[in-house]
Amino acid sequence: MDLRVIRAGFIGSGFAAKFHYDALQRVFSARVAFSGAYSPSAERLREFTAERSLKAYDNLEALIDDSDVLHICTPPVTHEAIVIAALKKNKHVIVEKPFTGYFGDGSPEFNGDKFPKQQGLEHAVKSIQNMLEAERQSEGRIMYAENWIYAPAIQKEREILQKTSAQIIWMHGEQSHSGSHSMSYGQWKLSGGGSMIGKGCHPLAAAIYLKHVEGKARNGNAIRPASITARTHAITRMPSYQDEGYLRTTYKDTEDFAMLHVMFEDGTIADIFASELVLGGVHNWLEVNTSNHRTICQINPNTSMQSYTPAEAHYKDIYVVEKTETKQGWSSISPDEGWFAGYQHEMDAFYKFAAQGGDIESDSKLAADVISVIYAGYVSSEMNGKEVAITIL
């Protein structure tokens, strides 16, 4: 069978663009042809394109015209305008996390600790509405780049739910580690929040997705989130925090811990934790308790490979796992981190859709639910955990 050629364009040239490019090397559902990349940072663009023999565009519109699928790998504050521009030209877009959000009022004195969170919720919902409306008027589709959805463990649980007609009763999960690589992370005006949006979006998306799957399997309609109770804390910014140098402490006006209690339309629940306070590498997991089975999706770490060395120097040139503080002693090595995290499965699924049509597992409806829940969560946290209704779009 001759595979359809799909032209891929990258908007952005940082960390996300690099792992998108790497994941595309394992796409088998289409023939990927790289049209090139655009970035407002000329130096980073040259570095990104030269290393991969890609064409460097100095004009965003030209890149959109020359591509079938656009990878939106830019800061989330830019997503709405770029997504709408591409959809107006009937192009598909793969949009990195967070999908959108509220990034302040543009004033120098803006502080994420002090603004009314209802204002952030209203702005984020309006941004979502703008992108959903652009999608409705376009031949292009929004594909939400939430790799957790395509992680093999989550997709296996999808199969189990569909074949057993189980009711999900309670889920709980977490993404935590010792702090982000990005120095812009921790400033609300750049990241749209802290741990709740930066970490919590992953297990939250997986939990919402599985309720979508359950509802469609049982009665044809996704089960959507209805309300949230949330708390956030800035532990490493407390005067009493004892800093021993292991956790990142450069957060300016965002939280480093978040706890979300989500109730769905059918009365079932999910509890999500997210933080920058965990040593020992990335902690990614989701437990699913249902009416006829229980599943623990252990994305990272997992026990597929464990290795011991008495001295870290022996593993100087060995990649072990993301964000581990030391290689000495026992390590849960990830022999193919991208595979367990779902990156290559995600891109293959998106390009299969672009080439052949069908359904998108991680679509704009899921993206809308995730952001609506998170910003309602910030409103709840501002009120010390009061229950807040979630806007469903």
Question: Brief description of this entry?
Answer:
The protein has 393 residues and is an alpha/beta fold. The chain has helices spanning 15-24, 42-52, 60-65, 79-88, 117-136, 147-150, 152-164, 188-191, 195-198, 201-219, 337-341, 343-356, 364-382, and strands at 5-11, 31-38, 56-57, 69-72, 92-95, 142-144, 168-176, 225-233, 257-264, 269-275, 283-290, 294-300, 306-309, 329-332, 388-389.
Any key phrases for this structure?
393 residues, alpha/beta, Rossmann fold, Dihydrodipicolinate Reductase, domain 2, 2 domains, seven-stranded mixed β-sheet, six-stranded parallel β-sheet, 22% strand, globular, nucleotide binding, oxidoreductase, Gfo/Idh/MocA family oxidoreductase, Gfo/Idh/MocA-like_OxRdtase_N, NAD(P)-bd_dom_sf
What is this structure's SSE topology?
Blueprint: E1 5-11, H1 15-24, E2 31-38, H2 42-52, E3 56-57, H3 60-65, E4 69-72, H4 79-88, E5 92-95, H5 117-136, E6 142-144, H6 147-150, H7 152-164, E7 168-176, H8 188-191, H9 195-198, H10 201-219, E8 225-233, E9 257-264, E10 269-275, E11 283-290, E12 294-300, E13 306-309, E14 329-332, H11 337-341, H12 343-356, H13 364-382, E15 388-389
Parallel strand pairs: 1-2, 1-4, 2-3, 4-5, 5-6, 7-10
Antiparallel strand pairs: 7-11, 8-9, 8-15, 9-10, 11-12, 13-14
